[in-house]
Amino acid sequence: MRAPIGDFDNAVPAPECLDRLTEPVAAAVRAWQGTVPADQLLYVDTEPEIADTAAFVAHHGLDLLDRSANCVIVAGKRGDVTTLAACVVRSDSRVDVNGAVRKHLGARKVRFAPMESATGESGMEYGGITPIGLPADWPVLVDATVVDTEWVLLGSGRRRGKLIVPGKALAELPGAVVLDTLGVPAG
Predict the structure, then answer these.
(1) Are 141 and 126 in contact (CB under 8 A)?
(2) Measuring CA to CA, which residue among 183, 170, 159 is closest to residue 55?
(3) Euclidean distance between the first and final Cα of the chain, in Å?
(4) Which residues pair with 77 in a beta bridge?
(5) Stretch 25-33: mean pLDDT
(6) How far apart are CA 107 and CA 127, in angstroms?
(7) How far apart are CA 106 and CA 58, in angstroms?
(8) Strand partners, 42
(9) Alpha carbon of residue 155 to chain centroid
(10) What pTM did the predictor assign?
């Protein structure tokens, strides 16, 4: 099947290729619930060398920039308590860490989580982290512009491969909170 966005000729419904996903992502697809059917979560095979956004859109076309999203893991700290959270913003934006994220988490300080924490706690590869399949107790903060995007390209849990999902599906993830001002223009 041809993907609904991008130049991908071979999009496969994620439930049909669970072996290509990390275990947490595969488990989330197996247990998928919500208004968007699981077979609308599509997997496309991509080269791991171009997993990072800039290289990916340079290879597959700049028109994907406003239809793709990055999932970054942050660590919010207040006193002795550290909270890991996912932030999902369009790839042409950056996460408002010191504004929207800090306020939502009620944290005194928020920083990007160390790679070891992000990958170790999520069970996913650096450069491929996706909001689908993250630990259930993590807040998943999603920018409203991502939810309003018909089809969104994001990580698959691995550097190899991407998921293409209806943006509205991200609002239904466990722990999801849609924020109007999570993403700010990159610059």
Answers:
(1) no
(2) 159
(3) 36
(4) 82, 109
(5) 97
(6) 25
(7) 37
(8) 13, 164
(9) 6
(10) 0.95
Can you give the pLDDT at residue 61?
A: 83
Tokens of 129: 């982290």
pLDDT above 80: residue 187 = no
Q: Summarize the confidence of residues 98-121 as an average pLDDT.
A: 96
Structure tokens at 83: 């909270």
What pLDDT score was predicted for residue 107?
A: 95
Residue 162 corresponds to which tokens in the numbers above? 């991407």
- The helix or strand, by DSSP H or E, that contains position 57, with its residue range, turns out to be helix 53-60
Structural contact between residues 164 and 44, judged by C-beta atoms closer than 8 angstroms: yes
**Which whole-number Å values give the CA distances from 87 to 1, 33, 120, 185, in the listed order?**
30, 21, 17, 15
pLDDT above 80: residue 62: no
User: Across all residues in the chain, what is the average pLDDT?
Assistant: 95
Other Cβ atoms closer than 10 A to 175: 15
Average pLDDT of the residues in 166-183: 96
DSSP-assigned states of every residue in 90-147: ETTEEE-IIIIIHHHHT-SEEEEPPHHHHHHHHTS-TT---STT--TTS-EEEEHHHH
Cβ pair 62, 165 in contact under 8 A: no
The residues near 104 (Cβ < 8 Å, ≥ 6 apart) are: 139, 141, 177, 179
Q: Tell me 70's DSSP state.
A: E
3-state DSSP assignment of residue 186: coil
Torsion-angle region of 6 (φ positive above 0: left; ψ -120 to 50: alpha; else: beta): left
